[in-house]
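Database export, one record per block. Field names are fixed; values are copied verbatim from the stored entry.
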Amino acid sequence: MSFFQRLQERVDRTDSLLCVGLDPHPEHLSESSAAAAGEFCLRLITATADQACAFKPNAAFFEAYGAPGWEALEWVIRAVPDRIPVILDAKRGDIASTARAYARSAFSTLGVDAITLSPYLGYDSIQPFLEDPERGVFLLCKTSNPGAGDLQTKHVAGSGPLYLVVSRLAQAWNTADNIGLVVGATDPQALAEVRSAAPDLWLLAPGVGAQGGDLKLALAAGLRADGAGMILPASRSIATAADPGEVARRMRLEINANRSRLGETSGFVDDGLGLLADALLRAGCVQFGSFELKSGLLSPIYFDLRRLVTYPALLERVARAYIPLLERVKFDRLAALPYAALPIVTAISLASGWPMIYPRKEIKAYGTRAQVEGEYRAGERVVLVDDLATTGGSKFEAIERLQAVGLQVQDVIVLIDREGGAEQELARSGVKLQTVFRLSDLVNRWERAGLVSARQIEAVRTFLAQNSGG
């Protein structure tokens, strides 16, 4: 049985995603000694064993006491009850021969079930830890420390930030179901991007608690569709409490309450679109207030999808969300409606290989005087792609430009339908509107996940009731 199968069994048995960290900081001990460190951790194990899906001792706090500290670490690991996984927080990373010695130390000598590793020396530096599928590794991907951005967010040409490169490699290397990733809960945007890039992997997500990570956002971003695939370590918030067992119990219940709310969200969460909806919210592509729309209506919600150009990984996720709809439509070329849809359709084209064109907003007054940019032939069928649909007015303008050069348009696909009548208006002209999200479904999800205030939700629902084109 693989490490993560055993972890899943423990999660199911305890109904817990809480991983209790064993970090014997000297200031928390009765005295600064290996013995006191061991006793401190033993008390935590005894108090929280019925609430924890795993324990995570931090090797550094024991190694600081030399040989006695190492002995105390062995004692602490042996004190963890059977069938509760032990994850050694050691962050090892070295060349293959040294890595093999580290693996023997962790798995054979100490007897832990999993270990945290740095992946930055490449696959051969972690391969010795993967030879036994019953042992697991968590690779550092996007950590929660302030300096994480010095390297982990650096852009790799054609691949996005470095942490996404790591997540994709981990997904490919996980042939024995024993690789997970460390992704800080303090950055829900990165957490959602990693979940999208590595949909199957377990995530170790530190940062909820003393580091200030938002539990609701972290769970919405990091959970798999099955409600698992993620464990949340907590150490100081439990260790320094007067009653560690009670604090651990409350944390487990809070985690589960939020898991339940996410499980009740609209159906699109099952295929990852719910995580994308949340990512759009966090990226500032969704704003609440009072906004005048092109139609002249005053709306309490505004979608600014032009911001996607600032978030390449999110832009890629948005582009891929269109593809299942496009695969069900017959067309020769994509047609992007300027301007917000241009980067989106470019990303779709790069991901799919489908050629694109776009009708100009202003007919070119020089050179070719083109109405439509790109290569096409009269009689071809194109699918018009845009970011939003409200009343449909801008779609008709684009369709007229495309038809004027002999192209056929029977389908329009948008990311978000604001439900302002565009679907009905287009249908009257024989054009079918398809959409990734409906505004009402987005609002339902954000309400149940607790990501948007009740006042904002009510304002949007009132607007929809008064202005719906249905």
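Remark 1: Residues 3-263 form a domain with the TIM Barrel fold (CATH 3.20.20.70).
Remark 2: Residues 308 and 315 are 5 Å apart (CA to CA).
End of record.
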